[in-house]
Amino acid sequence: MKAASHIYWCESDEKVFNLSIVIVTGSSGLIGSEAVRFFHRQGFDVIGIDNNMREYFFGPDASVNWNTTQLVASLPRFRHKAIDVRDASSVDDLFKAHGNNMELVIHCAAQPSHDWAAREPMTDFSINATGTLVLLEATRKFSSNAVFILVSTNKVYGDTPNNLPLYETEQRWELDATHPWSEFGIDESMSIDQTKHSIFGASKVAADVMVQEYGKYFGLRAGVFRGGCLTGPAHSGAELHGFLAYLVRCAVTGRPYTVYGHKGKQVRDNIHSNDLVQCFWHFYRDPKPGAVYNIGGSRLSNCSILEAIDLIAHLSGYKVAYSVSNTARSGDHIWWISDVRRFQRDFPSWAYTYDLHAIMNELIEAAKERYGAYVVAARATRSGR
Ligand SMILES: NC(=O)c1ccc[n+]([C@@H]2O[C@H](COP(=O)([O-])OP(=O)(O)OC[C@H]3O[C@@H](n4cnc5c(N)ncnc54)[C@H](O)[C@@H]3O)[C@@H](O)[C@H]2O)c1
Question: Which residue ranges form the domains of the chain, and what is each CATH number?
Answer without folding.
Answer: 9-382 (3.40.50.720)
